[in-house]
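Let us work through a complete example step by step.
Step 1: write down the sequence.
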Amino acid sequence: MRRKITLKQIARELGVSISTVSKALNNSKEISEDTIQKVQAFAKLYNYRPNNLAISLKSNRTKNIGVIIPDIVHYFFTTVFRGIEQYAKMKGYKVITYVSDESLTKEVINMELLSNGSVDGFIMALSAETQKANDFEHLRRIENLQIPFVLFDRVTDEIDCDKVLINDQEAAYMAVTKFLDNGRKKIALITTAEYFSVSHGREKGYRQALRSYGLPIQEDLILRLPITDLDAEVIHTFFDKNDIDAVLCVNEVFAVYGMNLVQQRGVKVPEEMEFIGFTDGILSKYAKPGLTSMSQHGFEMGVMAARLLIDRIESNLRKVEKPFQTEIIASTLVERESTLN
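Step 2: predict the structure and record it as tokens.
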């Protein structure tokens, strides 16, 4: 195996300056095409690799961004990640990803691992335990270190930073209005605990839509489930006890499970009971019948989060102050066979 070569050695062998070698390796327009090809061929032949640590110390940047997501099972988070990665790559940044597994402790550890100089900034959605505990001290420490970060989807008003989300209340209102326009009056909500920012917003939209149509809010028609465990017995009991003709679910897992359950009991979907879920992922597309969904446009959310973070990183390097932004991605209703036209 050939021994690794340095910039200084390449410059000496080719009889050019170190600056010329560096520019040629970065395809600078200041350098002739002939020199670029000669330098790059020599570097490849002798297994040249840039010293990224030295570069980051010298430039005060790593060209890495950290991403912390609550889990990798939900389709939504994978689409957000793809959007982040595509935009970051286009801007010359690499992405380092950690999964918090809905744990506050893991979220804190992940942030501390990345804040040791490994990344120029963070993008993250808060874990279930973080929102339940309402504990954001680790984010305040990152603020104090002046490391930029962007929150997406699951956010908090207690931290000033750039944020990207959908208007959950408006999206749920739109979904329930679809049911109401189809003549449904006994509309259930299957959701998670209220401490989740997204679930709180979606429940507000559900209640607002019912009130706007003059319908009473029946608390018995609201089922709260743990985010990490699908309690089949509780769901069975819920449908046994209540007279329901439509169901809004805060994610597609709840919706597809509920829809399969009632169909096994002989309920016709959508003729007798309609379903709408959030996310519009693979489960929604391939469910039987296809699940009408509120699309959160995860890919676009990821692109927007990456753009906000990289803009702030580069503004900070130029010593340009910018106010924090909250970008709202419009949610859209994707109609399939689980609702009537």
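Step 3: interpret the result. Residues 57 and 143 are 21 Å apart (CA to CA).
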